[in-house]
């Protein structure tokens, strides 16, 4: 992945095509749309396919979105339906 | 899970139940913590554990997936699922059938192969279509295209195929993939292609057809569609056409046949004959119609193709006319040939056709008649063989060449027939009437020329007669004086015999002069004739002695009388003189003797004969022919024998007036004279005298009064002073009292004052505007019963009508002797 500090790195951990995971994936795509032209990297990680990465990232439940911006990192658990809340939680505003 | 906790261990069911409860509670707690929005929990090894709801959902989903998979397999669409990199992750049955559909040797990747690579090397697709497919799918995969469609050929080796490629994004947890579907649209494409071909065919067959073509409704005859050629040919726009029916382009008389033709309603395109159509301009032209039934916009219709055949019809008509004209010309030619033959055969004129050397190739019957030989005898000969004298036509060849050069020639030739008879013909020749053929037409003018000659002669005699008559008149006045005075001298010179002899000689000479003038008057038809019905046979018989004495012993006289001879209406004394004249001529023509024949006959001259004679009226005549066997008269003299003073006799032997008198007498009497003569054979003169209706009793010859005078008073009217003086003296010497006047008016004046005048003695021809006849009529008005005696040097129409004296008139011809005058006066005055 890119370590460029200006880049917002989103990493969504999902459990295969389980319903909430699928929903979260859909929402995070919408979120990415809303962020417009802001440099965003999205990585989707299936914990069934790559459990070690989830362990490494400290993920205990899915779906969980991890936002890494610069050195800080925050995470949101759930389907991410409330997009404004998610943005606010993650300290992101639509650009 | 504990390693020792296995399903096979008894006694642990309670523990298992506890564990299950704990699990359930844990899961419920997790769900509660995560507000139900989580699917799995990871344990400390990183092993994810699905929560029950998610697990159930996935199980359901798996079941659904199988159903969906079955459905997808059943679709007639080839579907491949691609991952974000374009690799095929799943295909349906249709896609798998690509392999078998593609035929042997074609392998279609099913999974794990990058579809973009496939597309780029798509089987059966052209390079361009493959590239576009690859680009389109990539655009869907990277999210820049929500949907990509492409129709492209993807032919298998065994058949043509077309597919519609549809690529849509498929979002999975692994990112955006794509569903790539291929629909087989071969049938659609082929159908579309068929439609396009059909449309092109329609355009080619209908719209672009160079022949006017239309579709019309068979019921209403309305146009439903027309092509450009129809628009051009008929002059109506398409819109105008669609508002019209066929009746609008047909002359009215064609419509019934049109309806009949439509009733026949053939399915195929069939010729429907030649029709007459009308353009917008009104021009009518011929078209050959081909028609068929068809379906147009769901209705039964007729499609019609109209070929303009006007020029063909015109050409055919022209050809027919030409043929007819040619046939007519041939017929004309034949008829013309027949007419020509008939004309030539029946022509009165000789028609001859000669070759380049003048030899005759054709001759008609009239030519044979003219030349006196059979037609066959003419062929091969030339004109020079038939002319009387060859020099008349010049040197044959030279004259012929000149004629050919001139092209035309006309003139007169004398032709000699084999028997020697000469015919006179006018010819008219035209060269080159046909190549190498030259036409000559000859007309026999022998009789015409003879007639013309007669006419000329008659006219000459007439004019000579005029001249001699005038001379004779003046001469008679002189002779009257000379003769009267000589007579007086003879009477009074009784005592001087020598002088008396001289007077007698004078008297004799005057009397001969009087004879001459009398002959001249006779010739000029101005003698006074007293015609009456005469029995000619008797008259000639009475002359017998005279004739025999006159002509002498050496000539035999024969008289052939016709029985039942008609009486002639002539002056008998003049007839006697004429016969005597002819007899004397005959005698002179027979110095060595011969025979004189006098013949009488009845002659009916018809109009045919009269046509050949000048101044002859058809009718019944008494013929007196006087013939001799003498020397005859040369032809060149024959035309002049009637001329006065023309004679062939030696000088002094004849006066040249004999035949002239005969001619004048016969003509004045209403008859005719013909003379025939041949040198060495003799001469015949034929007198035709008019037939008299009846014979009167021959009046007894009047007994001449003795020369006696009288005492009556005579009014003498005479314009010639010499004659008047002589007459006065003569009358006075006879005892009459004489009053002289020089003209009519003077005489009337005298008559008015002198009631004692007994007799008017007047000249007939006088100057001063009043003739003797007029004077006499005026005098009789004044003095009815007055006696009148005329005298004249010659007689005029004043008192002679049609050659005879009016009844009751007395005429004393000049010159007269004293005794003649005395007798005439007593005759008029009466003996008493």
Read across the widest sheet of chain B, the strand sequence of neighbours is: 4-3-7-6-5
Question: Largest interface, counted with CB-CB under 8 A?
Answer: A-B, 31 and 26 residues
Q: How much helix, percentage-wise, in residues of chain A?
A: 25-40%
* Spans where pLDDT lies below 50 across 5 or more residues of chain A: none
State the helix count of chain B: 25
How many angstroms does the end-to-end distance of chain A come to?
22 Å
Shape of chain B: rod-shaped
Strand percentage of chain B: 15-25%
Q: Kindly name the structural category of chain B.
A: alpha+beta
Overview of the molecule:
The complex is a heterodimer of chains A (95) and B (832). Chain A has 95 residues and is α+β, with helices and mostly antiparallel strands. Chain A is built from 3 helices and 5 strands; from the N terminus they run E-H-E-H-E-E-E-H. Chain A has helices spanning 19-34, 51-57, 83-90, and strands at 8-14, 40-46, 61-62, 64-69, 72-77. In chain A, strands 2-1-4-5 form a 4-stranded mixed beta sheet, sandwiched between helices. In chain A, strand 1, helix 1 (19-34) and strand 2 (40-46) form a beta-alpha-beta unit. The model of chain A has no long low-confidence stretch (mean pLDDT 79). With 832 residues, chain B is of the alpha+beta class. In chain B, helix 14 (446-492) packs antiparallel against helix 15 and helix 15 (497-523) crosses helix 21 (658-668). Mean pLDDT of chain B is 81; it is low at 103-107. In chain B, strand 11 (284-296) and strand 12 (299-308) form a beta hairpin. Chains A and B meet through helix 1, helix 2 and strand 3 of A and strand 1 and helix 2 of B. Strand 3 (61-62) of chain A pairs antiparallel with strand 1 (40-42) of chain B, so a sheet runs across the interface.
């Amino acid at each position: 992945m890119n370590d460029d500090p200006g880049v917002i790195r989103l990493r969504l951990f999902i459990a295969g095509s389980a319903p909430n995971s699928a929903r979260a994936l859909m929402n995070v795509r919408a979120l990415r749309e809303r962020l417009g032209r802001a440099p965003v990297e999205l990585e989707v990680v299936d914990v069934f396919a790559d459990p070690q990465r989830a362990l490494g990232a400290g993920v205990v439940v899915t779906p969980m979105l991890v936002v890494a911006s610069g050195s800080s990192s925050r995470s949101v658990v759930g389907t991410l339906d409330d997009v404004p809340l998610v943005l606010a939680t993650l300290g992101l505003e639509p650009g | 899970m504990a390693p020792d906790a296995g399903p096979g261990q008894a006694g642990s069911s309670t523990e298992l139940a506890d564990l299950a409860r704990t699990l359930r509670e844990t899961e419920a707690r997790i769900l509660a913590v995560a507000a139900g929005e989580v699917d799995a929990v990871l344990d400390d090894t990183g092993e994810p554990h699905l929560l029950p709801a998610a697990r159930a959902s996935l199980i359901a989903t798996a079941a659904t997936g199988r159903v969906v998979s079955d459905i997808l397999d059943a679709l007639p669409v080839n579907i491949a699922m691609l991952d974000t990199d374009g690799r095929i992750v799943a295909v349906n049955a249709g896609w798998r059938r690509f392999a078998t559909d593609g035929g042997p040797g074609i392998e279609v990747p099913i999974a794990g192969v990058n579809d973009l690579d496939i597309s780029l090397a798509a089987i059966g697709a052209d390079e361009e279509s493959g590239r576009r497919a690859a680009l389109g799918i990539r655009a869907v995969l990277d999210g820049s295209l929500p949907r990509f469609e492409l129709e492209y050929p993807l032919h298998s080796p065994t058949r043509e195929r077309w597919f519609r490629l549809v690529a849509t994004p498929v979002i999975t947890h692994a990112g955006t993939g794509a569903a790539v579907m291929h629909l087989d649209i071969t049938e659609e494409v082929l159908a579309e292609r068929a439609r396009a071909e059909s449309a092109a065919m329609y355009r080619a067959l209908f719209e672009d057809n160079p022949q006017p073509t239309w579709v019309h409704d068979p019921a209403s005859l309305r146009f439903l569609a027309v092509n450009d050629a129809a628009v051009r040919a008929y002059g109506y726009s398409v819109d105008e056409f669609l508002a019209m029916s066929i009746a609008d382009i047909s002359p009215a008389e064609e419509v019934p046949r049109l309806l009949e033709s439509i009733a026949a309603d053939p399915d195929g395109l069939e010729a429907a004959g030649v029709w007459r159509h009308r353009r917008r301009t009104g021009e009518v032209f011929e078209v050959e119609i081909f028609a068929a039934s068809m379906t147009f916009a769901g209705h039964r219709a007729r499609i019609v193709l109209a070929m303009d055949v006007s020029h063909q019809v015109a050409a055919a008509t022209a050809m027919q006319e030409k043929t007819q004209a040619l046939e007519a010309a041939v017929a004309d030619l034949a008829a013309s040939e027949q007419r020509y033959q008939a004309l030539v055969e029946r022509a009165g004129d000789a028609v001859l056709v000669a070759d380049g050397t003048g030899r005759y190739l054709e001759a008609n019957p009239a030519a044979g008649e003219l030349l006196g030989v059979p037609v066959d005898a003419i062929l091969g000969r030339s004109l020079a063989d038939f002319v009387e004298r060859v020099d008349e036509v010049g040197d044959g060849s030279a004259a012929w060449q000149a004629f050919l050069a001139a092209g035309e020639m006309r003139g007169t030739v004398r032709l000699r027939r084999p028997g020697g008879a000469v015919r006179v013909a006018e010819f008219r020749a035209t060269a080159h009437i046909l190549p190498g053929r030259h036409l000559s037409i000859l007309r026999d003018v022998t009789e015409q020329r003879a007639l013309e000659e007669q006419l000329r002669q008659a006219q000459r005699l007439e004019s000579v007669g005029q001249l001699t008559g005038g001379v004779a008149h003046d001469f008679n006045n002189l002779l009257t004086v000379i003769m009267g005075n000589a007579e007086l001298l003879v009477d009074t010179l009784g005592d001087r015999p020598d002088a008396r002899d001289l007077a007698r000689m004078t008297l004799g000479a005057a009397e001969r002069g009087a004879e001459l003038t009398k002959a001249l008057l006779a010739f000029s038809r101005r003698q006074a004739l007293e015609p009456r019905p005469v029995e000619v046979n008797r008259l000639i018989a009475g002359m017998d002695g005279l004739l025999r004495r006159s002509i002498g012993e050496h000539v035999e006289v024969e008289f052939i009388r016709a029985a039942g001879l008609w009486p002639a209406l002539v002056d008998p004394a003049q007839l006697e003189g004429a016969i005597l004249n002819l007899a004397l001529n005959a005698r002179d023509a027979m110095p060595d003797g011969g025979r004189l024949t006098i013949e009488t006959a009845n002659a009916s001259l018809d109009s045919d004969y009269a046509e050949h004679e000048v101044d002859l009226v058809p009718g019944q005549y008494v013929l007196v022919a006087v013939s001799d066997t003498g020397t005859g008269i040369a032809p060149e003299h024959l035309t002049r024998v009637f001329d006065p003073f023309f004679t062939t006799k030696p000088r002094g032997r004849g006066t040249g007036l004999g035949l002239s008198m005969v001619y004048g007498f016969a003509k004045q009497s209403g008859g005719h004279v013909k003379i025939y003569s041949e040198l060495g054979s003799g001469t015949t003169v034929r007198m035709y005298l008019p037939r008299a209706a009846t014979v009167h009793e021959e009046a007894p010859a009047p007994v001449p009064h003795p020369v006696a005078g009288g005492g009556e008073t005579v009014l003498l009217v005479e314009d010639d002073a010499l004659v008047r003086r002589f007459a006065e003296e003569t009358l006075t010497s006879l005892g009459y009292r004489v009053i002289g006047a020089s003209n009519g008016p003077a005489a009337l004046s005298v008559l008015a004052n002198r009631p004692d005048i007994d007799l008017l003695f007047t000249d007939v021809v006088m100057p001063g505007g009043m003739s003797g006849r007029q004077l006499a009529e005026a005098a009789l008005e004044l003095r009815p019963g007055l006696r009148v005696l005329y005298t004249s040097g010659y007689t005029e129409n004043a008192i002679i009508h049609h050659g005879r004296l009016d009844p009751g008139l007395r005429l004393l011809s000049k010159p007269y002797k004293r005794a003649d005058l005395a007798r005439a006066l007593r005759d008029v005055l009466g003996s008493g």
